[in-house]
Amino acid sequence: MSQALETVVNETAANPQWSVLWLHGLGADGHDFAPIVPELLRPHWPAIRFVFPHAPMQPITINNGVPMRAWYDIVSMDFRSRADASGVDASVRALDALIDAEVARGIPVERILLAGFSQGGAIILSAALRSTRPIAGLIALSTYLPDPETAIKAAIADGARPPVFMAHGAQDPVIPQVIAADTAQRLTAAGFPLEWHSYSMAHQVCAEELQALGDWLDARFATA
After folding, report:
1. pTM attached to this predicted model
2. Helix (H) or strand (E) holding 216
3. What are the respective helix, strand and coil percentages of the chain, to the nearest 5?
4. Which end of the chain is more exposed for a tag (fewer CB within 10 A), N or C?
5. CA angle, 119 then 120 then 122, to 5°
6. CA 118 → CA 141, 179, 204, distances in Å?
7. Catalytic residues
8. What DSSP line would sit under 2-23, residue for residue?
9. φ and ψ at residue 55, rounded to 5 degrees
10. Percentage of the chain surpassing pLDDT 90?
11. CA 130 from centre of chain
């Protein structure tokens, strides 16, 4: 993943004051969450640049090596060891490059939010534990922290602890809610201010979730 990631960009108005970097899930691409922007926006919000990167194509072990867009290989069904660590590292570096690009475009790091669904959420959570950059917040949807014990132990002691919006489906067959709840507990114990939401849904996003996310974003914009 040495080359810059291709992205889908949606600016809600001229001269964006904020950026949201939103990573998709396994097998999707940057177009997957772009349609959510109109549903999420509120009239009084500042101008925002939404950046939806495409993950690179790579073979996925548990899918018989079939190539698809992915932020890391899935090597087993065990959530403690399912994520290919080198792939996670590469995606964290690629995300860092996207943050650098937004800063270079004039967006202060304090006005950059990281969002991710499923695999994409795993990357933003992994990145946050390794960073000292005071980003505005993390949006972790239907996701979990890969290799949580190692990740928490390796976390930068004086690193940033941005606020987290974390939401999950109680009937999620892909990432059981108990796995996500464990991640939420670990992040809270590590010092992240975390807001947890559970919905009666599977591995997806629902209208109630977007409403709650909009309220959470309101609070971020209001304090800037």
Report:
1. 0.94
2. helix 207-222
3. 35, 20, 45
4. C
5. 65
6. 6, 12, 9
7. 118, 172, 203
8. -SPPPEEEEESSSS-SEEEEEE
9. -70, 155
10. 80
11. 14
